[in-house]
Predict the structure.
Amino acid sequence: MKTAMKELVDTIIRNADALTMDEEARVLRHIDIAINKGYIKDIGILRDYEGTEELDATGKVPLPGFVDAHTHPFQILLRGSLSLKDLNVHPIWLKVLIPFEAGMSEEEGILSAQLACLNMIRKGITAYADSGGPYPDVLGHITDLAGIRGRITYSTMDKSSFESYYHRAEENRALVRKWGTSGRVQGYYSIREIMTSSDELIEKTFRYAEEDGARIHLHIAEEFSEVEHALNRWGERPVEYLYRKGFLSSRLIAAHSAFLSDYEIQMYAETGVNPVHCPTINMTYMTFPKVPHMLNMGINVAIGSDGGSYRGLDMFTEINVAMASLIGNYGTPYYDFGSLKLGSFLRMATRNGYLAIGENMAGEIRPGYKGDIILVDTRKAHLVPLYDPASLPLFATGNDISDVIVDGRVLMKGGQVLTMDEEAIVKKAREISPQIMERFGWHIN
Ligand SMILES: [Zn+2]
């Protein structure tokens, strides 16, 4: 008897109870997922396929990779050096974070990029959007080697007391031309903050981005002093100004978006802006963004960690903080604890993040979508029983992620990172920390 030839694909995940994160947030039980040439080829009981690489997902839950839609890879070496009291040093980004980045050596920049990418793989972050740093090209190369998706840009500003750290729109244009706007690692534009940017820099950045078909990352409506600044400078709130100038579009990644008026939210809805809620830092430092209102208006809200210096890069933690705080603020006063659904938070951290960075065919486990999938190992005391895998964010942390696949390539398998030398990076980070402390030790208390 002749047996039919099995079709060979790059990677197959077997025996999975998968969180698809499609619009109905379906859980598909006992299925296989075949990935070939970077895309999900098929899902179901796949007896006719054979994988060059096969992962047994028994006891594990696959879901689309997380997207950290607002992060600062070049601040990761500050981890554990900033106390909550430092937030009183207002504004901390201008008084502490920008001086730290401005004084960073290239050696520290390389290590920061390596440590950030390593952390992201470990925590199941398959794609990130950097809001701008000192060595984006270095970050691009390291991201490429690590195997995840990244959006890279210079920290862009031309007004502050750190002239040595000014970066112009032309430098981002060179990055965009070098890295392109369609690959796994892409260059894009950014404005650090309107308060540290001239009108000319803002206008040029948006014009270049439009001409190059590139995205733009912006800290916006981040703090009260920024709203005051905009009212004094333009007689308008920050988003009103951008709207009047015609700068708002779906190419804009709008980090924080915490202090928005209802009119500004309407402007987001009308133009397709992608706000990024950074739960831990928004709750600690800013305010409650109107996330339920924005979601109800069809706005694509994503989630960001705001970098690893305060609370690490854990999207499950961010989802939990977002859930507790937003339901507390918008639900509890009305005795309506279901004002936001668990699936909405998971979708913000996956599908919405991919849409924000311009990956329209990613962020769901669905044939034709990109093969970016993470596996959570649920064979642990704190994850059994787990009747509905959709309840994972309530119990899991990023440390429960055991396998990471991007573009169909396995980057972490059974808890082992395959694309980076974890031991060497951790050793170097420990060695370099006294030199960082020497420069910034006075912030530790
Ligand atoms: Zn930020």
Remarks:
- The chain has a mean pLDDT of 93.
